[in-house]
């Protein structure tokens, strides 16, 4: 998927969409749907069985061309927050919304996982890969079956990052509004507040395990251990486990390793000035990896405050980008 092959993957075996509920209120069609995740079709062994089925809810105003997928933030196991924070006001602007239930969340949560605490670091990458395929298919479905041809993806925090990942595999211009996220998650998981939740002692034991090292060495086209030893040679004071995690996270979460979005001028990135969760210092900027995109900085606020107080700003740029995209079509 880092090569932008989601569409090809889906077209090999197009999922069957199942509509489980449909109703109409005030000229808005509300739909509940489900389908087998394309990732589960092609790589069933890496996605937990509980996550094989993708669930979504749509709010479709009649006579609208515009639709946006809202991806869930960390801890968002239902549709409620996104419906209140995004859907209702966007419906007033005649903009449709699709809410996707995250893999590893809600009905898709593995039985032995406690709340939002992913069992493995790699679960984060699997979550992102699944959403890349699912968003791609949902936009295909929205265009073909519902005539929504002005499309976008958005999300907050983790949802913002997965929105960027998903957009990298869409082969036509869409609106993209990643909120409270950045171009790479490596520093956030090794230095930021999030790093405090990671079980470093467990990862240290894994890194010392011969079986773990053999497993990593079987992965083609990687030199992670060589890079780690080179960094430790230059700076022996580095923490071996954290530095390996930094290399590992950079490999899978750096947006520069994925295809650039088709039309960056329809991308608006919204970040808080004082973010201790999603770190940006000394990381590539969006302007560098996607020239033409723009970054909006929310002054004098941190991650949590930005989330609680700025949904109006998030909605403003979603609406603005979709309107500009519509004019260009």
Automatic annotation (TrEMBL):
It holds the Pfam family ABHD18. InterPro entries: AB_hydrolase_fold, ABHD18. Transmembrane segments: none annotated. PANTHER family: PROTEIN ABHD18. This is AB hydrolase-1 domain-containing protein.
